[in-house]
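Appendix B. Chain record.
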Amino acid sequence: MDLTFKPVTAEDMERLGPFYGLRPNKTCDSVFLDCFLWKDYYHVKCAVSEDQAVLWLMEKDGRISTAMPMCREEELPYFFSKLVEYFEQDLHKPFYISLADQEAVEYLKLDPAVYEVTEQADLKDYLYDGNALRTLAGKKLHKKKNLVNAFMKEYAGRYEYRRLYCYDRIEVWQFMERWKQQKAEAGEIEDSLDHEVRGIHEILKNCPILTGLNVRMAGVYLDGRLEAFTIGSLNELENMAVIHIEKANSEVKGLYQFINQQFLVNEFPEAVLVNREDDVGMEGLRKAKMSYHPIGFARKYMVKKR
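Structure tokens predicted for this chain:
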């Protein structure tokens, strides 16, 4: 089959951008930045097929996998079959998708006698009501609002929320080094976390190219020093903000809650949905994400041919 897969680079944004948002998809993978952030960790490659779809190849721990094609919904069965054919005839590998979005799985109605489809429960993305996270109104989010108010009172005159631009990347790098050191001292550095930091560096290095993708960056300064940093992007089809990165000095009470709220208020004021990604099966992250009372989940599935 005539498919040429190449590693994903920042320069691919212009080529791949039009394929995002062609069909319903509420996962964090529905925007380019998530793919770019983890491209080295998963050795992501892509191919444009017939100028109508983007097909993927990934490799982790020696296992080759793919993702659901990025194409129009009505063309999904055709390009899905092309992927299966490529695995069987070109790669001579078993067909395997590690994270298929729920919308694609439901649309394809795969024959259970041919395909095994299993939900990846620990990898579902958390979805929130955008207005609820911007206002923090009501009893459910009362504690979050109190933390934000306490932060603003404690640091009155000393804090500043600021949209960040490409020329701020040195300050962000310096902050990330301090944040990583803080995590290391707490014994919380893991392999995936190290790759996430590298991914952030790649985003900042290629910032001028990536800012055309509805990408927003912001930070919170205390006494003139950057102490919190976040990156998000917009899925226009779903009117959904995807929060890829949110890092803050954990010793500053209320700082995480403050940047969480202010980023949405200032950068995504009209977003109906907010995707705050998955908890990777970590209990601490699960509790933190549940504490914001999600309204649903973007579920993901493993798909493999029997």
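Further analysis of this model is presented in Appendix C.
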